[in-house]
Design brief:
The chain has 249 residues and is mainly alpha-helical. Helix content is 83%, strand content 0%. It is built from ten helices and no strands. α3 runs antiparallel to α4, α3 runs antiparallel to α8 and α9 runs antiparallel to α10. It starts with a helix and ends with a helix.
């Protein structure tokens, strides 16, 4: 209950500061719209269906890209973590490529596969893939060898060892990586849509800018932030359940 109260108070305070900034600065509406103008713009894009289409399009891209990044990251992380030579060979390259912002790859992606849904999905994949891959690989690589020796002594196959012992052991770490990857993927979804697509929430920002509609631009930004807030809340709940299941919390 206290969390809800503080959340409401936080947003109310932000709105008050925003309104005071508009009044004190005496800004032109075309430069810095007031909360009332943004609320009206929000009603406009809801009424004409633009917001609904943008949310559906962006969420479809996000879900596809994020799920692929999670599955690929965990699968390759388990493989690399279990094969020592692979970990040593791939880790330097991964560490070099990982800091490169996914949007930096956009020119090559667009040249290779064109514009549309695919570039945005690839950007989301890149943003979510590396945190999951590295966390999984490192987690597997650091599993107590005692567990592995016991499994070997009992004649447990390598595959069963991976899914019955190693994966449960490192999954709390993976759950945290999923949280980080989700936030990163959502941020870069918007960036990708601002460059390589003609639909979605990111494109709505560019379109609002081109049409000199800062009220719609801010309304879209608030929606993006709100969805990101909700996604972070949901993945946080999932993470707590996983950690509780494995006795961490």
């Amino acid at each position: 209950m206290k969390t809800v109260i503080y959340t409401i108070a936080s947003f109310a305070l932000t709105l008050a500061v925003w309104q005071l900034a508009v009044l004190a600065g005496n800004y032109d509406d075309a430069l810095f719209p007031a909360p009332k103008d943004v609320a009206e713009a929000f009603s406009e894009i809801v009424a004409n269906g633009t917001l609904y289409d943008g949310i559906v399009t962006s969420m479809c891209r996000f879900v596809i890209g994020y799920l692929i990044s999670v599955v690929a990251g965990i699968a390759l992380g388990l493989l690399i973590g279990n094969v020592s030579i692979l970990f040593r060979l791939t880790n330097p390259v991964v560490q070099m490529v990982r800091p490169i912002a996914p949007v930096a790859w956009m020119p090559f992606i667009v040249l290779l596969i064109g514009i549309g849904d695919a570039p945005a999905i690839v950007i989301i994949f890149l943003a979510g893939f590396f945190p999951v891959l590295l966390t999984t690989a490192r987690g597997v690589h650091s599993v107590d060898v005692t567990y592995l020796k016991v499994a070997s002594n009992y004649g447990i196959s390598r595959l069963k060892t991976v899914f019955g012992i190693i994966l449960p052991e490192v999954f709390p770490q993976i759950a945290n990586a999923l949280h980080i990857a989700l936030g990163s993927a959502w941020i870069f979804l918007v960036s990708g849509e601002m460059v390589g697509t003609q639909s979605g929430l990111g494109y709505m920002i560019i379109d609002a800018r081109n049409n000199l509609r800062p009220d719609i631009l801010l309304a879209t930004m608030i929606v993006i932030g709100g969805i990101g807030f909700l996604l972070d809340f949901l993945i946080g709940k999932f993470e707590k359940k996983v950690l509780t299941h494995y006795g961490v919390h």
